[in-house]
Amino acid sequence: MMSEVIVITSGKGGVGKTTTTANIGTCLSMKGYKTVLVDTDIGLRNLDVVLGLENRIVYDLVDVVEKQCRLKQALIKDKRYDGLCLLPAAQTRDKTAVSPDQMRKLTDDLRQEFDYILIDCPAGIEQGFKNAIAGADRALIVTTPEVSAVRDADRIIGLLEASEIENQMLIINRIKMDMVKRGDMMNIEDIMDILAIDLLGVIPDDENIVISTNKGEPIVTDEKSLAGQSYRNLTERLIGEDVPLINLDTNNGFFGRLKNLFRIASSR
Amino acid sequence: MGFFKSFGGKSNSKNVAKERLQLLLVHDRADVSPKFLETIKEEILNVISNYADIDEDGLNVEITKEKKNNDTYVPALHANIPIKKMKHGVR
After folding, report:
1. Do A194 and B6 touch (CB under 8 A)?
2. B21 — contact with chain A (CB < 8 Å)?
3. pTM to 2 decimals?
4. For a surface tag, which of A109, B12, B39, B50 has the fewest beta carbons within 10 Å of its beta carbon?
5. What ipTM does the predicted assembly reach?
């Protein structure tokens, strides 16, 4: 298969880019795809921590670009998931240490070896962002259902279009169905009305995410978590499978659960 | 406005959020910096001055929003051009 370079971006910080990158990456490798995750948040690296690989870093992205080491030496093979590799960011430099051209060369090299190259983009629209999108074929934009996040996502969408990355899909993260039902949180339709790009998936707010990061074990490996299931479904949609959105409505009570059963059974 | 669409005591902060966002994005998307508006203002002044004397102090160019039929907002460039008098002999 042709390799794909996918950038995961958002504009706003803290909406779940790194968590999303880690989980989609882990899930892809579990499905047998050779996957590399690239952390471009130089100076504030976090992908290593979320994956639980922080003790395995020897070389990093900047070392590779400055030719202090070979690419192979910097890539960390995750021992838990066959086919998953991490290229960590440098922690003691900043985002000017790498240029878009260098990123393009790097992603070209990575295409030789991997099916999927996921680029974890830092927050913001400056050098870090420009580096992250440089080699990308497509973009996943992560937002939460909050005003600031949606506003920033809109700006990012505009910048991506200006950079001719037209294949863009949205991930709505940290949705809280109880707040949506009370009218205190925008729902999927509201956000789609505003941002008007294709939706890849919706991830519910889930305390288990905190726990999974505490342990350095991506939530897609947790069979019971709703967020984990959502990430697994989302990854399947990413690779072209047709998976309906989970009904995130956790209606308690007998009739609520009965209604849910029928709804799930009859939904497309 | 959307504030009054609620029924049954349901909170509506999300409708407020949505409306605020829609208005906000009209401006954000118009991508207009003050410098850009200044440039447009000058060029409009130059062109219209071929045909009329303009009260330059009263010249105002701004980006506002117009509501369309389907309840969405689009950016609109509004130029207010007070004319002192028309020039004669100009083709």
Report:
1. no
2. yes
3. 0.81
4. B50
5. 0.83
